[in-house]
Amino acid sequence: MESVGIADLKSRLSEYLRKVRGGRAIVVLDRDRPIARIVPYEGERAPLKVRSPAPGAPPLHRVPLPPPLDLKIDPVALLLEERQSDR
């Protein structure tokens, strides 16, 4: 079973959750003391169904993309502002 400190778990949460989705359990440590365990959810799961494209549907590389949005605000600047406000 893999173990991780709280700070490392916070900074790389998505990575550890992918491991849990893959079936692994993670022990959370607070200063080398186990305080929690993250385990895969064992509830009812609907089987994944992959459907074939509808007859006559164009291949994905032929589907046109929507036009770009005409924004008055720079989305990158908004993202950076939001990230800086959490610190």
Structural class given helices, strands, pairing? alpha+beta
Mean of residue pLDDT? 90
Shape: flat
**Poorly predicted residue ranges:** none
Strand element count = 3
Please give the largest β-sheet: 3 strands, mixed
CATH architecture of the domain at 1-41: 3-Layer(aba) Sandwich
Strand content: 15-25%
CATH superfamily membership of the domain at 1-41, which one?
Answer: YefM-like domain
Look up the CATH topology of the domain at 1-41: YefM-like fold
Give the % helix: 25-40%
Radius of gyration from CA coordinates: 21 Å
Trace the largest sheet across and list its strands. 1-2-3
Give me the strand/helix succession: EHHEEH
CATH class of the domain at 1-41: Alpha Beta
Give a written overview of the molecule.
This protein is α+β, with helices and mostly antiparallel strands and 87 residues long. It has a domain of 41 residues: YefM-like domain (YefM-like fold), CATH 3.40.1620. The chain is 30% helix and 17% strand. It contains three helices and three strands. The protein has a three-stranded mixed sheet with strand order 1-2-3. A hairpin with a 2-residue loop joins β2 and β3. The radius of gyration is 21 Å and the shape is flat.
